[in-house]
Amino acid sequence: GLHLLRNSVHFAGQNLWLYALTLIPLAQLFALEFSYPILVALTAPFLLGERLTRARLLATLGGFIGVLVIVRPGIGIVDPAAGLVLIAAVAYGLSLVLVKQLTRENSPGAIVAWMILIQLPLGLAAALTDWRPVDISALPWILLAGIGALSAHFCMAQALRRLDASIVMPVDFLRVPLAAVAGYYLYSEAIDIWVFLGGAIILGSNLQALRAERRG
User: Fold this and answer.
1) 211: which residues sit within 8 A by CB, 6+ positions away?
2) Residue 96, φ and ψ in degrees, nearest 5
């Protein structure tokens, strides 16, 4: 039952995110999406019984500031699609809290296997409403994306099995500068000093939190 709840929530959030991607600029999307590590850090003490230490809270805040430095979103985000991203962020946050709960009785491999079994029919049902033929040249990229996504879910489950969610989630902010660097090398997208400054803030706040946890 918990697997079904976790995957239903994750699937809904994933589809809302993809729909919003077609409606608002990517910078706004990232800035709004990365509110979910904060949601996890703030709700984990109540839902999972974790400690919300000063170091963890500062790491979460530092990560969010680093993301804002990188994406520098516009001041007036008034597009209704922004609400979809916020709902997706809540869904992602709840999904990861449920993963942490599942790791207490399930291995990371089992969690990923149940994700495939549950989300495959959900995805097929959604795809049949707007089916498009898949070009054979896209299959290697689809396979690569699938392997990457499954690996990420497995690694996240492994991390949540060993550490509190309020420690793991601030590290996830590093995806933003890493994605910017990958975009520069793979797609010749623009990269500037703000990416490195924001990445340094994210990395520094996480290292400081990890050192505080080790001392504690």
Assistant:
1) none
2) -70, -35
Long-range contacts of 115-118 (CB under 8 A, 24+ apart): 115/3, 115/6, 115/7, 115/10, 115/153, 116/150, 118/3, 118/4, 118/7, 118/8, 118/11
The candidate with the shortest Cα–Cα distance to 169, out of 61, 40, 75, 78, is 40
Averaged over 112-138, what is the pLDDT? 92
- Give the torsion through C-alpha atoms of 13, 19, 23, 24, to 10 deg: 30
Residues 103-111 have a mean pLDDT of: 92
Calculate the alpha carbon distances from 185 to 33, 149, 214 in Å.
24, 20, 36
State whether residue 73 is helix, strand or coil.
coil
What gap in Å lies between CA 146 and CA 153, rounded to an integer?
11
Burial of 191 (0-12, 13-18, 19+ CB in 10 A): middle
Cα dist from 38 to 95, 121, 188, whole Å: 14, 31, 31
d(CA 212, CA 166): 13
CA pair distance 178, 24, nearest whole angstrom: 21
**Of the candidates 77, 99, 78, 71, which has an alpha carbon nearest to the alpha carbon of residue 13?**
99
> For the chain, what is the mean pLDDT?
80
CA dihedral 18, 144, 173, 80 (to 10 degrees): -10
Q: Measure the N-to-C terminal CA separation of the chain; round to a whole number of Å.
A: 36
* Total length of the chain: 216
